[in-house]
Amino acid sequence: MTFSRRPLRQIPILNPHHSLSRRFAISSHHSRHPTPSAHRWSHPPSSTVISDDDVASLASKPLHTLSLADLVKHGRPPLHAPALFSSANFTLSLLPIRLAHRIQALRNLPFIVVSNPNISKIYNNYLHSLSTLLPYKSKTISTLEDEIKFTEVLADLVNTHAHTIPTLARGFLECRKYVNPAEVTRFLDEHLRARIGTRLIAEQHIALHMSSQPHQHPDSKDQIPDPSSSYIGVIDTALEPASIINSCANFVSEICELKYGVRPTWIIDGEPNTTFAYVPVHLEYIITELLKNAFRATVESGKSHEPIIITIAAEPETTERGSAVLDHNRRLENGISSESPESASIKPFDDPAPGVTIRIRDRGGGISPDVLPNIWSYSFTTFSDADDFPGQTPGSGNMDALNVLSGAGGESSSIAGLGYGLPLGRAYAEYFGGGIAVQSLYGWGSDVYLRLKGLGRPKE
Question: What stretch or stretches form a coiled coil here (predicted)?
Fold first, then answer.
């Protein structure tokens, strides 16, 4: 089959924001005799043409449990046309259902919350993205022209939702008087985990498409991928945690030097040559946030001369899968919405799938017993109803994860985020069956254990 030479064009970022009209707000909530439209709309109106029946039908379908195996099953790039079409159709089978579930979740929020301009903006973004995918639901992608157009739609989707987390956080901050903090944490945990999967699905196909471009352009020799590359889309099948740790530690130490004038050191021990299959950008985010906590505590406690000790431990290979299933069941019993049961066969990887545990140990004085129970909450704060808006600086006394997510660009690694990345980091760690545990020795320091579940070893 001859591939088209049409390149993937850049698409403008669309962020539709249809704010509520004053007339609608009055007729919905203050009129003693609501108009018919008030009964029809229990959520913000939108100019996006998509019926409630379409949303309800898709949202009634169960979510596919995404695994790392799903993301590598189409093979190593460059992909031939049939494999590329298979990836596109697999992506199309998942995304509309996921978007519809998020739309329904937003509609289930109290009206005064979902009508907030920031949250309403996210709601309309989801409607827009679903409306761009619906035309493809009635057909199978079987031509390169359709695959290219579909990939452009995915690029638009990824760009549209690039700032979802900080925008949602700003909305919840502004609605703090009307929503329970526990409800905020529950919603954000669920939403962030769903968002991780949605972006991964879209970004994986985009990456497979782009890495297959040389196959579409046989005369473009400068784009031919390295045949020894360990990447399958966004997954590195030979990821070196030590390399990621050193890169993130260098970045965080530079931030510390800019803010505090000192540059803490670190030591990597254990098994630094360990490799496993994982998503590098996820590990980078988690490690960066954990190191921010450790470095900040070390500097502010006056222990800058004490190095942070980072130990990498590779789990031994085993055929026992029961522990993973038990861990997943235990999370479900505790109400944690993890999408990572290890039930699917790993292809093209061999079972078993050993994991990696990383311990970060600092001498930063530990975590106060008063603070420790709240470290996983997005809404732990001293903010009171008398305040117009929480402060945006760590020294204000109002700083919590929700503030940082809203003020520091969400998933960015800015100085404002020092010490406040645990909830989101845990969401990333738990997504594929891992987790984060914190052990504090108040007055001495902290040990943070990051466990990640890999895919195993690639087949030769």
Answer: none
